[in-house]
Backbone:
């Protein structure tokens, strides 16, 4: 059995029900909108985020979920989908998971409006049912994600990212959404309990490990759907590069910054940067940090009684760092 199928097994029934509820949550009276959302839903990914919601809720509630859990999972998926649609516009990207992106098929204006629609549907789903505690979690996540993206853009211009700033960026940009999934799952069944914060932290640690793993792919040989060196071409400061910049001679640092700033489209130069980072321990350091976040997340899980849901969450944490794409 594939790892993802194994992770999903204890929440298979919930995920099937969720599919139907999610489609319903997306529906509109506008035919064009329904065509586009149908296209989006049929090209979905692994749906890790709803899985986090259901596994957390079942772990904390003797294997049971409620309607709030389904709404929490739908809201997070609506918001996540909205951000992906908007990201493709921002990045001028024509592909998403191997298929044409919404903006490639329907142009930017429509894609932005569809993203706005999904965002509002997510917020209204919470408001209409009085789930203000869930709404707060979601709204904080949206704010953090926007701030993280803008902080990254601001810092990329100057290439002056310290390790601390890098962690702030990935905490906001990536980890905050996974943190929201886990705290939503906890809050749906155990509102106002300390578990909500514990699982927010758990999700955040998973998200940090997830993003560092993504950064490492930029230096790997595996075919993962994006060419290696793309972060360097986009002047994204990732952990292997930051570590290397902080631990090399002044002359090498100058050469590295010049390469990333002014020669990032030169394939030969990008390859030289990748080799330099590998030779100076950048990858080992990033792997070490990623495993540290993974261990912290697993330690948090150990405080809960053994169950198939806990096992699945453990598998999820390990999958985050072991995945090949």
Residues:
């Amino acid at each position: 059995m594939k790892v993802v199928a194994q992770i999903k097994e204890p929440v298979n029934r919930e995920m099937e029900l969720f599919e139907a509820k999610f489609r319903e949550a997306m529906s509109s009276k506008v035919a064009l909108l329904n065509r586009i959302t149908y296209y989006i839903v049929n090209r979905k990914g692994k749906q890790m985020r709803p899985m986090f919601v259901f596994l957390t809720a079942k772990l904390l509630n003797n294997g049971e979920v409620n309607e709030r859990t389904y709404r929490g999972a739908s809201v997070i998926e609506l918001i996540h989908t909205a951000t992906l649609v908007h990201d493709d516009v921002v990045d001028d990207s024509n592909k998403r998971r191997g298929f044409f992106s919404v903006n490639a098929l329907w142009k930017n204006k429509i894609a932005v409006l569809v993203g706005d629609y999904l965002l509002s549907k997510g917020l209204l789903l919470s408001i209409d049912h009085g789930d203000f505690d869930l709404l707060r979690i979601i709204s904080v996540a949206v704010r953090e994600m926007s701030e993280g993206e803008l902080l990254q853009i601001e810092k990329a211009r100057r290439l002056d990212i310290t390790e601390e700033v890098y962690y702030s960026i990935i905490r906001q940009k990536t980890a905050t959404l996974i943190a929201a999934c886990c705290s939503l799952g906890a809050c749906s069944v155990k509102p106002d309990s300390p578990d909500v914060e514990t699982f927010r932290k758990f999700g955040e640690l998973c998200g940090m490990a997830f993003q560092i793993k993504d950064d490492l792919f930029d230096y790997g040989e595996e075919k993962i759907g994006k060419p290696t060196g793309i972060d360097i071409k986009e002047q994204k400061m990732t952990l292997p590069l930051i570590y290397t910049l902080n631990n090399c001679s002044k002359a090498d640092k100058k050469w590295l910054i010049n390469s990333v700033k002014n020669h990032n489209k030169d394939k030969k130069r990008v390859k030289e940067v990748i080799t330099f980072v590998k030779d100076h321990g950048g990858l080992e350091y990033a792997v070490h940090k990623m495993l540290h976040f993974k261990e912290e997340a697993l330690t948090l899980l150990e405080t809960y009684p053994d169950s198939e849901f806990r096992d699945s969450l453990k598998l999820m944490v390990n999958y985050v760092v072991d995945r090949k794409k």
Remarks:
- The CA atoms of residues 126 and 135 lie 6 Å apart.
- The mean pLDDT is 86.
